[in-house]
Amino acid sequence: MGIPLIDLTGALQFGAARSAAVAAELRRACMGPGFFYVRNHGVPQELIARQFALVQQFFDLPLAGKEAISLHKSPSMRGYESLGGQTLDAGARPDLKESFYCGLDYAADHPYVQRGYHSYGRNQWPAELPELGDQCRTYIAAMQQLALRLMQLLALSLHLPEDYFDHTHASPMLTLRLLRYPPHPEGADALTFGAGEHTDWGAITLLAQDRHGGLEVKLPSGEWAAATPVEGALVVNLGDMIPRWTNGLYRSNPHRVRNVHSGGAPRHSIPFFYTPDYEAQVVPVPTCVPAGEVPRYEPCTVGEHLQAMYRKTYGLSDSKQAAMA
Ligand SMILES: O=C(O)CCC(=O)C(=O)O
Ligand SMILES: [Fe+2]
Predict the structure, then answer these.
(1) The ligand 1 atom nearest the CA atom of 256
(2) Measured from the CA of 209, which atom of ligand 1 is nearest?
(3) Which InterPro entries does the protein's record reference (predicted)?
């Protein structure tokens, strides 16, 4: 099985006619690779194209302009991370990518900011590219809508009410990441990656990638499959919260990036990480725990799960700078 392509036509609205059929396709994809493409997903192509144009302009800014809004100046994981700033696979070399993080703006008096929850706070925007803020806000709103709809279809696919997860969206942690990968160095060793092997930690990732490709997905068989770009489609993958919710039925599969197909050009990609409300409970859903069996995972909150991941992969407390995979 490769990476399936799911057409969301007729399934984008609550209660829509094709939802059950799409949910059945989702179930197969989530029990298999945990990765799939979606098309006719409702996010306008022009919005995605405009986002890519600004991503390019952002990374083309002089380094000093980007460093002025460094991630390290942000208490809430927002801003620029330079080349080699993250090592997603601890057994490999630092990742060959530059990135920029932004998300929902949470005001200083929001309870989650006051409680110091990781990544809740305000964005930093580059002075040289004033239109980036508005564009990212519009893009995030469109991706948020799609992520919420996919959570509803996921609920259906688990034979749960369509609105089962809706209450976990109250103050979500939405992270948009802009990425530029330089060309893979010639003669690089086997420990060199644009992004080392990792799983994502949230619930759902919606990835827009340029035409070059380079994303590789580890299939349940252990083989690596190229997530070749599909015109008009987004790549969707499940984060580690979903196996917790589904008692291990649905996968969050490892993936990595090597920019080896671009003919020497940089590669750009835009992952949107949907993570529910920090205080929401992640409890294995009833339809995934056979009667009389003990769930594989202890109930936890979204925040507790994230803190455990930060500790496991960085040896850091969640209040320190740690990158969101
Ligand atoms: O750039 C890509 O295609 C994937 C990036 C990724 O996996 C991540 O940022 O978590
Ligand atoms: Fe990822």
Answers:
(1) 7
(2) 3
(3) DIOX_N, IPNS-like_FE2OG_OXY, IPNS-like_sf, Iron_ascorbate_oxido_reductase, Oxoglu/Fe-dep_dioxygenase_dom
In tens, the pLDDT along 163-198 reads: 999 999 999 999 999 999 999 999 999 999 999 999
What ipTM did this prediction achieve? 0.99
Task: Give all domains of the chain, ordered by start, each with its CATH number.
Answer: 5-323 (2.60.120.330)
Per-residue model confidence as pLDDT tens digits over 268-320: 999 999 999 999 999 999 999 999 999 999 999 999 998 887 777 655 544 44
Q: Which of 35, 6, 23, 22 is closest to 220 using CA atoms? A: 35
At position 182, the amino acid (one-letter code) is P
CA of 221 to the centre of ligand 2 (A): 19
What is the spatial order of strands in the sheet that 98-103 belongs to? 5-7, 35-39, 234-238, 204-209, 267-275, 173-181, 98-103, 79-81
The amino acid sitting at 46 is E
Q: What pTM was estimated for this model as a whole? A: 0.95
Closest-approaching ligand to the CA atom of 97: 1
Q: Give ion ligand 2 contacts, CB < 5 A.
A: 200
